[in-house]
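Sequence and structure are kept together here, with a separate record for every protein. A complete record is shown below as an example:
=====
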Amino acid sequence: MKNKNLAALLAFFGGVFGIHRFYLGQVGLGILYLLLSMTTLSVILGILDGIIFLTMDQEVFDAKYNSRYRYNTPPRQTRRTRPDFQRPQRTKQREERRTRGEKYRSRPIPPRPTRKQSARSVSSRSPKHNPFKQSGIKKFKDFDFEAAIDDFSQALKIAPKDVTIHFNIACAYSQIEHADKAMYHISQAVQLGFNDFGKIDTHDSLAYARIQPTWDDFKKNGYTTMKKLGVPEKNLLDDDMLLSQLKKLSELKEKGLITEKEFVEQKQKLMK
């Protein structure tokens, strides 16, 4: 620690040689004072420094010349750095968290999927990119229906089960007055899950298809071109039983258990 009063005395009596600067650790200024010792300037500077040191506040002097010593004091011991300090035991909550963490770490880690498996799962989830679908919609809006049909046909090759493409191409076919093809693609859309029948009955682009004579039957058939299977006239199970009885009757005749006349009578009864 540097003393303010001692620095002032050294400035008064040895300031011409810069002794007070060497004392304060300012070696560069001390050498400068030595170089100026041949002139009266170093004497004047030494006297001024002595006056400044005497009038300077102690805290200012310490902040300027004793700061290096202030921060080199040994660190203050805290409660945790004392040798007699003991860490408190874990609380119940922290102990429960530690137990849960051990249980979680003890769970078996499932094997990571291989690159082929992950690529296959991603490809199955993400739909295929179909640029012809968007280009077909754009051409349809521009009233270029034939070009739109070409793009929708290409789009169906990529996604044959896309309900939207079937409905859009049906509208395009109706616009160019191909009602049969329009009904076919409406039927495909319905079979694939399209159930907005009100849109089919009111969409402006399907107006030509709706005025066709076959539209009413097409609508009654559930908007599908497939014919509904009717109930068979005869029960197939009954036919199998009839054949079985005729076979047994023939076996009885061959064994001589019934006559020819009895065989014909029983056969006629079964065929009625």
